[in-house]
Amino acid sequence: MLKPQFLDAQRKKSKRLSLTSPFLRRLISSLVADALFEFYGGTVSMRCLQSSIAVKRLLDIYGIKSKNFIGDICLLEASEDGSLCTWGGFWKDHYHVWTITEYGERVDLTVAELHNHPASSRSCWAKLPSIWWDNIQESVAPLIYLEDAPVDPGIGSYELKEELAEFLELVDQKHFDALKSKTADQIISIDQVSKSSDLRQLEIDGHPWAKAAGRFLEIGLPPLPEWIISRQAAIKTAHMQGKPRPSIRANLRQFRRTG
Question: Is residue 258 one of the residues assigned to a domain?
Fold first, then answer.
């Protein structure tokens, strides 16, 4: 049983550190990932909205404020043998959703299934780690996230909202079961990175994607897609002029399953 005193200590630790505690990260990530695969099976790669809403729901329980954002991601995809690489992700007419906590952490669980997305160009791409990044101000070349706008809570069709309600019931049940029947040591870790040093450690440990990313960082990454370069420039210009970040999806009402 996860005792209330222990969970309260995790809340206090998170506030003291201005970072979600390692245990709460492990608890939330493992519960949401487990529910995603049980409910959605082989289509988890297309459930970024559902995943992010579930992450926010559990963060709320532990007193950590967060928002879900829609935007563009451009990530290095590499073959497991490190011989091929390209840029993958979702941009322009496609988009992705992730969570940003009040502490400036970026949480993206479904990115770990990018290699299984229907739009993935090859079946040999290595699996990326999931992301609970400590500081959104720290960027690394193989992982580009461009926030566009907060996700409208009313987004989506009636059918999607019904489906989401069922999925969140499963998340709540798994959370309840974990509190009642598991100890802290029984909450498993999922493959996840929180800072650039984690990527380097994964490379040392032989993680196929991290090894390939490290290799291409040394010999040279492929040119970024023109659309990403243009979007980065527009965001930088607005920042330098003291203007709000330009949004192309602020009024999006219907969510298509892209990322």
Answer: no
Q: Identify the domain containing residue 105 by its residue range.
A: 4-240
Number of domains composing the chain: 1
Q: Considering only CA atoms, which of 107, 18, 42 is closest in space to residue 69?
A: 107
Whether the Cβ atoms of residue 230 and residue 240 lie closer than 8 Å to each other? no
What's the rounded Cα separation, in Å, for the pair 182 and 2? 6
197 close to 205: Cβ distance less than 8 angstroms = no
State CA 159 to chain mean position distance: 24
Instruction: Indicate the SS3 state at residue 248.
Output: coil
d(CA 75, CA 97) in angstroms, rounded, equals: 14
- Among 145, 20, 135, smallest CA distance to 71 is for 145
- pLDDT of 40-70, one tens digit each? 999 999 999 999 999 999 999 999 999 999 9
CB atoms within 10 A of CB 217: 15
Read off the pLDDT of residues 208-226 as tens digits, 9 standing for 90 and up.
999 999 989 888 889 999 9
Q: How many CB atoms lie within 10 A of CB 143?
A: 22
8 Å CB contact between 259 and 90: yes
